[in-house]
Structure formats: C-alpha cells, structure tokens
Amino acid sequence: MTAPARVPDPAPPSRGGGGGQRTAERTERRGNATRRSTAAERAYARRAQFRRRWLRVVPHRGVDGVPRAPFVLLVMGLLAVGLLASLWLSTAAGANSYKLEEIQTGVRDLGERAEQLRREVAQLESPSEIARRAKERGMVPAPDPAHIVVRPDGSIEVVGTPKPAAPPPPPPAPQPPPADRPPAGPPAEQPGAAQPPQEQPGQPAQPPAEGPQQEPPPAQDGPQQPPGDG
Amino acid sequence: MSRASRPVPRRRPVRGVRTRRAESSQLGDHRNRLVVGRALLVLTLVLAGLKLVQVQALDASELTKMAEKQRLTSKTIPARRGAIIDREGRPLAISMEVKSLAARPQALAKEWNKPEIVEQYGIDAEGYTAKIAKFMHEELGDSYPEEELLKKLRRDVPFVYLADNVPPDKARKITKRFPAINAEDRELRQYPAGDVAGNILGFANWRMNSQKTEGLFGLENYEDTVLAGKQGRRIVETAEGNNELVIPDTERDVLPATPGSSLELTIDSDVQFKVQQLLSDHVRRAKARSGNAVVLDAHTGEVYALANDKTLDPSKPLNRLDSNDPRLRNPAVTDPFEPGSVNKIITAAAAIEDGLVKPDTVVEVPGSIQVSDRTIRDAWSHGTEQMTFTGVLARSSNVGTIKTAQQVGEERFVQLLQRFGIGQLTKVGLPGESAGQVPPRSQWSGSTFGNLPIGQGLSMTVLQMAGMYQAIANDGVRVPPRILRAVTGPDGKRQPEPRPEGVRVVSPDTARTVRGMLRAVVQDSPDPLQRGTSPKAALEGYQIAGKTGTALQVDPRCRCYVNDKQWITFAGILPADNPRFVVGLMIDRPEPGNPVGVNAGPLFREIASYLVQRYQIPTSPDAAPVQQLTLR
C-alpha cells in the first residue's frame, strides 16, 4: 500500500458501491473478447491505465512537518564516528598485539634466564660446592672454638682453649704458578696461596701460624675402654 | 488482500495473447523442468544418504584411523614438578624446562633432494644436514660433536633424537633456523646440592611413555603425587603419519598445566652435609661396613639430618647401580639393628619413674647374673661392686641393669618399650620405613628378659633410637620425628605440616633425672671406677648426656652372637641442661680391634661441636657435676 508508483493498483476507496456493477461489465466485455481484435484489446487496456494515471495515494506527512535531513545527517555522522572508532580500535589492537607478543617473548626469555641463574646460584651455594671451593683455597674446618662467656657481673671467662686449625693434610696435587713469592713463612703458606692477603705483621696471625705441631683432629681415641660395653 | 480484487486478470489475457503461439509447448517444458529437477534432487539426496551410510557405518573405523593419522593430535603440556627445599629454603631438587631436539632424516632427505628444492636453494640434503650439524654443534657445545650429529641426521631412519636437555632458548634458535628440527618439551630434574640428602630425596627422571617426570625412589617417589602437579593439554594439527610434526600456529584448546607443590623438608642441608661427611669419614677410619646418623630437634622431633655413610648423588648418572645397592634405600630408616646398651634407658626411665631407685641408690653388682639358662656378664670382668644406679648406667653394667629391670617387671618394661616407640613405625615420612622388631610377649623365652634390657634380641632403626632420647630430652614427651615441614601449593601458599601428637612417656621429673644421670656417661676421671663409658663424647663448655652401646651380631652360620661383628651405637642429648638436639649414631661392624670403631662417642662430639657452632648454642652455665659411679 505504500508503493504508490504502481499506478494500476486500485486504491482501497475504489472498491465502492459501484464495484459490483463494474465487475459485471468486465465479465461481459471478456465474454465479447473473442470478437475484438488484439490491437483493440491492447488499446482498451492502455486507455484504462492512462485514465488512472493521476490517481495515487497521497503519502501521509508528519503533522509538524519537521524536516528529516538533520536526523539523517545525525545518524550518518554517528555511523561514521562508529566506523572510525572501530577502525581505530582494531588498528590499535593489532599494533598492541605485536607489542604484546614482543613483551611476552621478553618475559619468557627473562624467565628462562632467571631460572638458569637461580639454578646456578643453587649449585654454587650448596654446602658441598662451598666446601670444595674452600678446600681449593686451602681452608680447613675450624676445630672446637673457645667461648668467651660474659658473667652477669661483667667478668668474662674463656671456656675451652682456642686452638689453631690443622693445615690440610696433603697439599692438593698440582700447585699452580702462584709460587712467585719467596716463601716468607714456610709453614704459614697454605696451598692455593692466591687467596689469603699478605700476612699482617702486627697481628698474632692465629690460624696458619704453627702448622706442624697441630694435634690431629680430635677423633682418634685409644682403646680407653674395653670393647663391648653392652 | 486477496488477489481476486486486483486487476491482474485483465493483464493475463494481455500476456496470454502475446505468448499464445508457444503456450502448450512451454507449459510442458515447465512441467518437465519440475519433474526433472525434482528427480535430480531426490537422486542427489539418495546418493548423499547412501554415502552417509557408507561413511558413518561401513567405513567408519578406517576413516577414523586415517583422520587421526592426518590431523589433530592432543599434546600434553608437562606440569612443572614441585621443588624440594631444605628448612632454610635452599633447593635440593628443582625442575627445569628443557627441550629434546629431533629430526626425521628420511623425510628430510626426500624433501631436500627434490630437484626444484635443490635448484631453489642451491643446496641438497647432504649440504643441508651438514649445515644443521654445524650450527647445532656451535650452539650446544662439545657434548654434541658435529660428526655424531651428522651421522644421526643422515641415518636411514624415519625419526631420530639429536640432543637432550637443550635449554629452551637454544632450542628455539635452532628450530627457527632449521624448521626440519623439531623440539619436544622435556623436564630436567636437577639436584644442585649433589649428594647432600641424596638418601632422602631419591631420584626422579623424565619418562617417555607418560611424558612427565616421575620419582623412582626416595621422597621423589614417595611424594610423587604431591610433586607432580597436573598435566595440561593442547590440540595441535600434525602432519600425516607423524604426530610429532606439529604444523605451526595450529595450537588450540589449551588447558594450562597445574604445577606441582613444593616440599619443604626439616633437613638443614649444612648439617646434613657435615653429618654425612663426618659419618662417612668415621666409618672409613673404623673400617666399618656401614653407618647411620640422625640429628633431631629435641623438642619438635624435626629431623635436621639423616645420613648414611654412603650416599647416592642423584645428579650423577645411575646406570651402573646394582638394584641391591644400599644407596637405593635409606638404611637409616629401612635397616634396623640391635641397639645394645643404648636401650638401657628404658630400664632407667622405668625404675626412676616408679620410684624403685634414685640416681644415688647403691646397687650391688656381681660379676655375672643368671637369667634362665643364660649367664650374663658385664663388658669387663669384675667381682661384686657397689655401684650407684648412675654408675650402672654410666659404666654400662649389664648385670646391674638386668637386676634393676627385674625389679621393674616385664609388664612395665614392655609398656615403656611401647611408649618409647620401639617396634612401631615413626611415620617419619620416608618410604620403606622399618618398625624394627620386638619379640611379642607371647613368644618370650626365659632368657628374653635377660636380653631386652641390655638392647639385644630386639631391633630398631637409628631414628627410633634417637626418638627414645628425644623423649628424655623433651621432658618425657616423645614427638614422633618428621621430615616434611611444609608443602607449598602451586598458588604459592605455604601449608605447614601438622605436628604429630606427642606421647607422654615418663614424667618431666623422671626425664630430667635420667638426663642428669646420663651426663655421667661422658664423665672423665683418672679413676676407672668413676669414669663413664665415653669421656671422649664430652664437649667443653657444654653438658652432654648420652649413652654408648655395643651389640653383638648374630652369625647366620652358628645362629649365635659372635664377638667380632658388632653394632656400635651412641645416642646423645646436646646440651643436657637445656636440650636443643638429639643425635643418634650407629656404626655397623667396625673392624675388630680398630680403636676408632670401638666407640661412637668421638663422632658424636664432632657432630655436637659443629652443631653448637652452626646454631650458636650458648654454653651451659655450669659444668656437669661430678657424680659418684662406684663406691669403694
């Protein structure tokens, strides 16, 4: 009904009281059709169409007659803005995804590196490694320490006798070059001489001073008691 | 709107007129078209239906197989295995993500020998493999010689592994440059501390069939479910015939892996290292068969160190290990022994608790005592001596102990044996734990009660032995030892393990009294009658309570106790006046006559000396009082 272009379509009002009469006329005419030539028939049809040329449904206009143009423009504008925004967002997302990927790669690489470093630290701080390195530098485990006990009255008491550590039993096999110094204090030299600083003359130089007369680690004990006490 | 009201009929004649000449034939054409079209459609549908039946029903299994071959492969994402750390957070076992590099030499040769490829790249398979081998050798270092890689790459096999345990960054570099090389996810279990606590940790390695790291023995095996975590899954498209060859960028349906939980042990790796070292040194010098040692916290029962003289280094290859190798077990918890005189603490605790004796009660100790058909003597021959009860313990008199035990009574003795945890699992949290053996009351013979009080005829692990002394150190409450301190879940939440319920063994007073008496064991004196059995266990500045033990072993040939095969034991409390640690030691079969092997007291002293330095234990305010052991 909203398609006024189609002229021959009868508007609803044409279905009036005279409708019945016209139909009758039509049937009659059709009955006569055989008598009419085709050309005439066509002419009739054309004339009927022509007669209705000006008849069309007048489109309904809004009461206030507000022009549509601004509204259309507004919608178009909104659409354009939306389009641009989505374009910009997707471009930004695309650009960011590259950045993201790059950063993720960085995170992964750094994570792997951190893990490797952590493993190295774990290895280096393990007691066996520390002991090995200490030994390499000619260090030995300390013997029993002496304790200085401070009494409540402020006086002090030394518990135990401080003893220097025994030098490591045999010097580790190959002595590398550092023997460039003339052996200043022969017994004082520990293997791996690269490590300890020069002997400080002022200090009593506790540990390495008297190497040879060490008593061996305190574990050896004579058969002070008959075997089998149980 | 009905069509009838429209003027359409008027137009129809118009069209009709125009087309009248062809009307009949065209109408027939239309009908024919419809019929033919319909027939075609039906036919197509029928054909499709038939094909459907064929695909879905007849050839289904075969097609599924083909499809599987061709497209999607579900790959597991390995879950990172939890670490094992010591009580200070130092790692003992950690997992690393690594890659295995593989290639498909046959496919590679076929591809790179195609004339168009040779033409395009100016290199054939031989040149290409040479390039791969050179680059891989440069990246991976000398453990992968170029010739060896080349040999593998040119072998006439469909699939070959080229390198294991490759760091992921290097693997990426190689696979990026040579897409023909494939990297597979692996996990490398590492033990940065080497053999420290190797007996406790055990061993875990990567398994090809389950595609994850699994524990083989030790804690790694025992706590495998906690450590393992949950594998993730991803679906990838793979090339036909080779599910290992992933088509790049086809990953989907990723279900992330849940990493395993980390275990925090009660072990202090410094103490563990030192005890392992001292113990193996002692065993070597005593020319003994083996030895066990344990260091417990006196109050919580936490195991600070649990050592055997021989320890497996899980960071070294295990290929050449015999399945009977003791290092595959943890003899400190799996192998019980007869404790000898260390067991006299039960009689002492019972007699003091029941008020039968006091430390200075004089016991008349003859040279021997008859129990049923057996005569039991002391370790040294003597006539009747008047010993204080402290002296009986400190000089380790068998006769005096049995006399007192008889006063205590069998029922009470068995009751206390049980409260001290002998014959029961400690549930320390290590696999293969032995409960030791205590003859059931119903199977006792007449002489059994002449054996048990002096620590023969029953067996215990070094952990149970130290547990007895822990009860005395902890004022009479025995806390079963534990080795697991906390579990840290994948969310990083640390869940401390519940502390086991303590068992009240004796009253605090009894515990203190017994501890005081045990100090006399390390008492030195020029007079042998006033000397304890192990003055060399004494540590200057600290009060030490301890007990030596020597148990004879049974010779399987004569099924009798023999003198030249012994277990030498020692259990000590450090310091006796304010206990911090309990140390248990066992040396198995020291060389007869070897002075080092006679007594484990000196080993205790070395360990104690280390512990007071490591934990900066304050010295005892007073020296232990001199106690009278024997009356003149």
From TrEMBL, chain A:
In terms of superkingdom, the source organism counts as Bacteria
Q: Where is this region: Disordered?
A: 1-40, 157-230
- What sections of the protein cross the membrane? 69-89
Start-end of Pro residues biased regions: 164-189, 204-230
**Bias kind Low complexity: ranges:** 190-203
Keywords assigned by UniProt, alphabetized: Membrane, Transmembrane, Transmembrane helix
This chain belongs to which protein, by name?
Cell division protein FtsL
Give the organism the record lists. Answer: Longimycelium tulufanense
Q: Taxonomic lineage per UniProt? A: Bacteria, Bacillati, Actinomycetota, Actinomycetes, Pseudonocardiales
Automatic annotation (TrEMBL), chain B:
An example GO biological process term is: cell division
Q: Where is this region: Disordered?
A: 1-26
Limits of the Penicillin-binding protein dimerisation domain = 76-244
Q: Name one GO cellular component term.
A: plasma membrane
Q: Which SUPFAM superfamilies match?
A: beta-lactamase/transpeptidase-like, Penicillin binding protein dimerisation domain
Write out the annotated subcellular location. Answer: Membrane
- One MF term in the entry's GO annotations: penicillin binding
Location (main, coarse): membrane
Domain Penicillin-binding protein transpeptidase as annotated: residue spans: 292-607
Concerning Pfam families, the annotation shows:
PBP_dimer, Transpeptidase
Comp. bias intervals (Basic residues) = 8-19
Keywords linked to the UniProt accession: Cell cycle, Cell division, Membrane
To which protein family does this belong?
Belongs to the transpeptidase family.
Listed name of the protein: Cell division protein FtsI
Q: Which organism is it from?
A: Longimycelium tulufanense
